[in-house]
Amino acid sequence: MLDLRTISIMAAQDELYEQVLEMRDLLVAACEGVPAGRSEDYRELRADLLASSVAGRVPRFVKRQHTLQEFWPYIKDVDRSWAPRRQHVRDAFQDLLDHLEDSAGSPGDPDTGATFSGTDLAEVRAEWQKAAERRRTDATGAITSARTLLETVCKHILDEREVAYSSGADLPHLYHATPKALMIAPSDHTEQVFKEILGGASAVVNGLGSLRNRLGDSHGVGRAAVRPSSRHAQLAVNLAGAVAVFLVETHLER
Which pTM value belongs to this model? Predict the structure, then answer.
């Protein structure tokens, strides 16, 4: 289980990544002129990044240009056209973004990967790898993969325990049957604390199913659709991984 310090580190890492993206996008927009009302945003983002653990990787022009007004003459000298200016900014931020993405894995990833590698469930390993890799680069896809991971785990466990289920069963129905087959449903325990924890796990699974329906990539979206960020994807994948590990380890132990 993740402790408060680990959760705090993960949250800070996610926030830093979002700040870098916001700064990059702000400066890409500023390649066509100083955006109205964004000068203070630039100063605050610049101060935060230069005080962060990745200050040494912040592009040199951010360090040297204290305001957006100072950035404008700098970027005009890069090229007369907007497109090369924008590419110049994107290229300058790529090393920093790559660094954050490379270090963005959840602290629970090694344990999760080890649990799935220690089984003959090839499909489970594949779904976990897909979900973990999508967290930063494809938030909607990661949310869909998180649900697919849990569905795959439940189906494998039910198959191995010869528990029948409908071919069209959705995640809530599959998860309802799996703890029963493993004798870890809330009703199987007399201790209130275990009832609450296992009931909470069920609520998490139902929430992941709803999140996938709302924000995943399995349905078309309109122009006004809510789009998930990397922190939403991290939460969905990490929760799915934790529940999946608990189910697999219980299945193997019994």
Answer: 0.53
